[in-house]
């Protein structure tokens, strides 16, 4: 059973073709895994077991006829609870959100479903995705699969934990400042933030004008398969079955001849030595597989730093605006961290907010110029390891400096596991110019092949002491 749940989506599909696996068998294994492990890590806040098993049965009948409906037919996918899935509520980690089930899928979910993927559950998030750990009053604390005393990161922590532990090979998440890449980094999986708005978000999921939807997976190929499905136009039908297309087409073309900038630690960021060592080895790997790697001081990013103020200003103002529209009684139900963020936003004047927007535009223009000289940029994904649960330490309350600037510039960026620092995963971040999503994925795949298989966390999980998950 454990072997099945740790297979990638592409391996599952190959098994369906060969009839060595069935979608019903796979979905049963995934749901059993959730039953066994989720009480410890709290990755899920909702399941549709009946709907998932029914959809798996339909997929199995199609595979028996050798007529899959799409390239992900029968593959389980979880969805972060900021994104609508028909038949399940979208609680957004908040007591203030409606408990009623959704009548329709969000656009990206609809496209995954059209490609054959089976949305089977909602994953935990911080309230409205407000912070880089995953805890909130509604669903409690989500724990790191490598060490349950620690956070997996956030706000897509549930998605990262689910994928890392074999509770489904694919998860759809969101990233407004690092919320895909940070939990991917700390949980030992792949997390890809596409170019802004490449994946359709729908009005409800893009209210910060910084967040975009993207995949969390165990392999780069699976991330590309998800992106193929989610960027397929409404009138195009699902992507073709059995032959690479879109972002999967050139995935194995390698990095020979690319000019890659390497920034070990931008100004004002102190990277932990053990993490720096892991990421340095990853940068060296790119040179070994044919790229030209040039250590560079990156002026546009350096200009962004002031403890990430241009991001913090916008983030807090957007949350203040959201809270402003709530009923007074609802505001008393909010996570204190979200309330503090909103209060900070109410103190920002119009001139400061506009200055932040102008700085955002300038950063984007500077990075366009930067990528005229380089094809890609490498950095650490995060400068330190995960904090203990629950809560968010004061030194991590500012904008995450190595990831949030990519949201400001709208750039594609991926975190790929690159080693263990103090027995915990850490990540390499690969960033490209706007629209170069295929190149970013190609480079990540080349590194993944050169690195070899990355270990998974052990399935024998225990809560530390007598701590509890639920609030």
UniProtKB/TrEMBL annotation:
Pfam family, one: Amidase
Gene3D superfamilies, per the entry: Amidase signature (AS) domain
PROSITE patterns: AMIDASES (PS00571)
Gene Ontology MF: a single term: catalytic activity
Domain Amidase: 26-441
Protein family (similarity comment): Belongs to the amidase family.
Stated name of the protein: Amidase
């Amino acid at each position: 059973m454990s072997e099945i749940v740790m297979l990638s989506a592409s391996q599952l599909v190959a098994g369906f073709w060969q009839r060595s696996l069935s979608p019903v068998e796979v979905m049963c294994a995934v749901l059993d895994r959730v039953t066994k492990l989720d009480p410890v890590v709290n990755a899920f806040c909702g399941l549709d077991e009946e709907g998932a098993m029914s959809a798996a049965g339909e997929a199995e009948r199609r595979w028996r006829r050798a007529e899959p409906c799409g390239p992900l037919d029968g593959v389980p996918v979880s969805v972060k609870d900021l994104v609508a899935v028909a038949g399940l509520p979208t609680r957004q980690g908040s007591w203030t959100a409606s408990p009623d089930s959704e009548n329709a899928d969000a656009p990206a979910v609809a496209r995954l479903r059209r490609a054959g993927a089976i949305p089977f559950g909602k994953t935990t998030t911080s309230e409205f995705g407000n912070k880089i750990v995953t805890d909130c009053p509604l669903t409690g604390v989500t724990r790191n699969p490598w060490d349950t005393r620690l956070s997996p990161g956030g706000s897509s922590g549930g998605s990262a934990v689910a994928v890392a532990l074999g509770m489904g090979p694919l998860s759809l998440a969101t990233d407004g400042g690092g919320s895909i890449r940070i939990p991917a980094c700390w949980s030992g999986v792949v997390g890809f933030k596409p170019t802004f708005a490449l994946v359709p978000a729908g009005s409800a999921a893009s209210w910060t004008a910084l967040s975009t939807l993207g995949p969390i997976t165990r392999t780069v190929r699976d991330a590309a398969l998800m992106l193929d499905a989610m960027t397929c136009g409404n009138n195009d039908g699902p992507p073709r079955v059995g032959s690479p297309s879109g972002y999967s087409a050139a995935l194995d073309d390698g990095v020979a001849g690319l000019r890659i900038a390497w920034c070990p630690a931008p100004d004002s960021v102190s990277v932990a030595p053990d993490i720096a060592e892991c990421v340095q080895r990853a940068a060296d790997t790119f040179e070994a597989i044919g790229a030209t790697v040039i250590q560079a001081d990156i002026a546009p990013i350096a200009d962004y730093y002031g403890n990430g103020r241009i991001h913090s200003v916008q983030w807090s103002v957007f949350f203040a605006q959201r809270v402003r529209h709530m009923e007074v009684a609802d505001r008393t139900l909010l996570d204190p961290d979200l309330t503090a963020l909103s209060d900070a936003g109410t103190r920002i004047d119009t001139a400061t907010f506009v200055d932040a927007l102008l700085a955002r535009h300038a950063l984007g223009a500077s990075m366009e110029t930067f990528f005229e000289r380089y094809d890609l940029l490498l950095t650490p994904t995060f400068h330190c390891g995960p904090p203990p649960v629950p809560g968010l330490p004061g030194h991590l309350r500012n904008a995450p400096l190595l990831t949030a600037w990519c949201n400001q510039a709208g750039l594609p960026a991926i975190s790929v596991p690159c080693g263990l620092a103090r027995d915990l995963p850490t990540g390499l971040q690969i960033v490209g110019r706007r629209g170069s999503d295929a190149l970013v994925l190609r480079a990540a795949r080349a590194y993944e092949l050169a690195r070899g298989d990355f270990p998974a966390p052990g399935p024998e999980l225990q809560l530390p002491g007598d701590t509890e998950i639920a609030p």
